[in-house]
Automatic annotation (TrEMBL):
It comes from the Bacteria. This is non-specific serine/threonine protein kinase. Residues 5-253 form the Protein kinase domain. Keywords: ATP-binding, Kinase, Membrane, Nucleotide-binding, Serine/threonine-protein kinase, Transferase, Transmembrane, Transmembrane helix. It comes from Amycolatopsis vastitatis. CDD domains: STKc_PknB_like (cd14014). Pfam families: Pkinase.
Amino acid sequence: MAGRYHLLDPLGDGPAGTVWRARDELLDRFVTVKRLPPGCPFDAAHSDRVRAKAIREARVAIRLRHPHAVVVHDVFEQDITPYVVTEYQATRTLADLLERHGSFPADRVAALGAQLASALAAAHAGGILHRGIGPDRVLVTADGTAKIDGFGLGDGPFPAPEAAAGASPACPADVFSLGATLYFALEGRPPGTGVPPSAGGPVLDAVLALLRHEPAARPTMAEAERTLTGLAVARPLAELRARDTHARTRALVTGTVLVVALGTAVTAHAALRRLALRFTTQPQR
């Protein structure tokens, strides 16, 4: 594709597009190639606008270089379909991790949020909006490093109230969508379901501040980064798997200890009974 990208294997397929692992034959490196949705097949004008917007915003995202943002290498069209080329890393989406392991501990959510907010704050400082933050656009490596993906794609799962009402997106809309993503990670469900949060404490308070209804009442992304950084404890993803294993192991050990204790008590009782019988049956002198 584009005279240099050789598709190797699919990595995923969803509303935001189809993704492959590929090799950049020109620079001899692995990359990710994402085919973006083409728009409405029955409305050529709409499809043209969608395609032009995707290409324009992908080119803007190329300017962003941050350790917690997926690097955009290239953008091109083939058969009037836009494609975006990004760095390749072995990662899993936050959505997949939450589905497999359930909600995250509060300090882990703070660490995740601090990393994402740092990248988004840098983007905002450079005049770049994300427009579609959600669990499926957060990538997490095995050592717990988070990277935000999908700049400019829009149509995220957690639009801010003003964006849902038709207002032009601005920085506070990204703040709200980040807050909703972190709330989902903390509670295992999106905000606004009517179910009170089960968690409590300063991390929940920080997340709820991002979800304030009025855009002007929300902190800036830079302020969110500072707050979350102060609450964060970085942990590798292996601890998520270890947490489930530890819970099962602890239950097994507890049960084993109880069985051993019960067996010991029974054995001791039987020994005492035999000893008592021996003394009571000995002849008197």
